[in-house]
């Protein structure tokens, strides 16, 4: 991922009683080591719980997001517009936005860190990454093989981090081009950061992933597939979704449809559209939801049963004491066959 521009600024803060101070940096000329750091950051970033959204519309707009919280346009989005238009350079853009971030650090954190900004390109897509990187004490060896104390960047501790797909933003075709870390241990900090970004949550990744899995379960049932074929398609979906989550990329419905059925590459996509599940063409995968999804299956004495795990406890219950499986919502096709037999 070639780096076009990168710059870091340091915010020093010694405990809650001392105000944060800013030391400004300059755009780096040598980006070779920074590219390695960016790759390591991306690996950590992809593994964190995240939310997706977009900038509030309008230069001074104000609106309510999906959670009912009021979000106003921010100085950050304004300064980013100035940088993209060439009105200010990268150093000035990052310095001015970091200055506006200092009160946030003062209010929510007892320690500072380095605000790192990276403007990169991969293929035709341009991305802006920004993150607060903390340091931790470590050890190393000097030239004479003596043990010395060293400071290391703690990439595992990403409390504040965001990635903006600049290409999608400028095309205006997406409502989820901002991705930011959701540190569940510090919700007030995350909320303040989201407000600072001027980001309105565009999609609930967990809810969207659950809807996709529900649509897939309905599709498999409607196709009345053999158990082996059903299991293969389920594995294909989970493998693809997990791979996208690992890369930090969305699930693309038409691409998923081609993988699910190579003979009829549009079948699953058309099924979703015809049933109107309300899914966007691209869905941010939620790793926790994916981990909970699998199919239970078994066959004995002429009876073959399979169902998705998320149905257990809802439309399907298991009575452990009596060793009974209770199906509350019998499939229509099966119900018709039983009625015909009884009639």
TrEMBL record:
The keyword Zinc does not apply. It is found in: Cytoplasm, Nucleoid. Transmembrane segments: none annotated. The keyword Cytoplasm applies. Coiled coil: none annotated. GO terms for cellular component: bacterial nucleoid. One of its GO terms (molecular function) is single-stranded RNA binding. It comes from the Bacteria. Keywords: Cytoplasm. Belongs to the YejK family. This is Nucleoid-associated protein YejK.
